[in-house]
Write a structure and sequence with these properties.
Bound molecules: adenosine-3',5'-cyclic-monophosphate
GO molecular function: nucleoside diphosphate kinase activity
Strand order of the largest sheet: 2-3-1-4
Strand content: 15-25%
Protein name: Nucleoside diphosphate kinase-like domain-containing protein
GO biological process, one term: UTP biosynthetic process
Shape: globular
Family: Belongs to the NDK family.
Order of helices and strands: EHEHHEHHHEH
């Protein structure tokens, strides 16, 4: 069955590497079901990352995500949540460069904070974040052709 995940290209990386990342997404066989550029407000970024509230890097994370537009995407594929996480690579680029240098974070992340891309961690989060960013769309009605 086709699964959906919420993926984001973070602001700095969107400016610098948009086309290379979109190409890598296409090459990995994802369908790009929805796409929009969006500059998150502080309130939205805080809500988007509410699972991380209280962590020492939370304020920095919110600042980083608000500093320009993100590219928000719904990626669709069998096993999309896990497949997108493996295309991103580990959160920490030092680790990504060692274990998966061809992953998006291996290629483009600058630090554990400025780590280029985001993806939902499980299917429940994926549905929640898709709804938060794209509203009440009917995922079953989406066309999965490229
Ligand atoms: P992301 O996968 O979008 O989910 C949470 C984000 O918090 C993560 O990517 C990083 O941008 C950031 N992050 C996670 N851990 C740390 C950390 N130890 N220090 C700074 N930022 C972090």
């Amino acid at each position: 069955p086709v699964e959906h995940t919420l993926a984001a290209i973070k602001p700095d990386t969107l400016e610098e590497h948009r086309d290379e990342i979109l190409e890598q997404i296409q090459n990995a066989g994802f369908s790009l079901s929805q796409i929009k550029e969006e500059k998150l407000s502080r309130e939205m970024a805080e809500e988007f990352y509410k699972e991380h509230k209280g962590k020492p890097f939370f304020e920095q994370l919110v600042d980083y995500m608000c500093k320009g537009p993100c590219l928000m995407m719904i990626l669709s594929k069998e096993n999309a949540v896990q497949e997108w996480r493996s295309l991103m690579g580990p959160t920490d680029p030092t680790e990504a460069q060692k274990s998966s240098p061809d992953s998006l974070r291996g290629r483009f992340a600058k630090s554990v904070l400025e780590n280029a891309v985001h993806g939902s961690s499980n299917q429940d989060h994926a549905l929640e974040k898709i709804k938060f960013i794209f509203g009440d769309i009917d995922l079953n009605m989406m066309v999965h052709e490229e």
